[in-house]
## 1
Amino acid sequence: MSKDPKSAAAEMNQDKKDDILENFQQFKDYLGDQVQKGEKLGLGEEGLTKGAKRVGDYLAKHEDPRNREQKVLNELWNVANEEERKHIAHVLVKLTDETNK
């Protein structure tokens, strides 16, 4: 999760990006995989949350929501202030970490 989301998205082929974003479970699985990679690199909870926030910021600016769950997250993200976005990112890390166990 340490790679810049914009760079990671630019390097990812469009089909893979579409696969990840079309289905919320696939999105959670992908984010969960990134959380696991971050944990293996020694990132703590704060580092993982910071990475998730960067992903959230990127998605809010560059990607349209593709399902109901992403639409809700997008709306919450857009009305949240910076501190609230950190909390949303933290909850997403917890959610994806639990999903991948």
## 2
Amino acid sequence: MRVVSGLTWLLGCQLVGEVVVHALDAPVPGPVVGMVVLLLVLLVRRPPEGSSVHQAADALLPHLQLLFVPAGVGVVVYGAVLRQDGPAIVVALVVSWLLGLAAVGWTAQLLTRERAR
């Protein structure tokens, strides 16, 4: 029964995220906003280890690979589009990866210098 309660919390946060995105017409997926809401709830509530949310997350984690099925179907369905736009997609992925890597490196350097002081 605790897992059901935890799933209710998880789905409730996702629902709040969807409502916020639709209300604000934000260009962000609802589940992403829901994860931020869940983070804020967990930071405020500080549930103890073994709480219903922890149990629900532990029950879902072994089955996480099922969430990749829709992405695989999308690759198969939109294969022609991906072949046509492949070079642009690869360039965008590589550039965004390099920018992310540079941002992490600069942040690490900044934090290392801050800590040395």
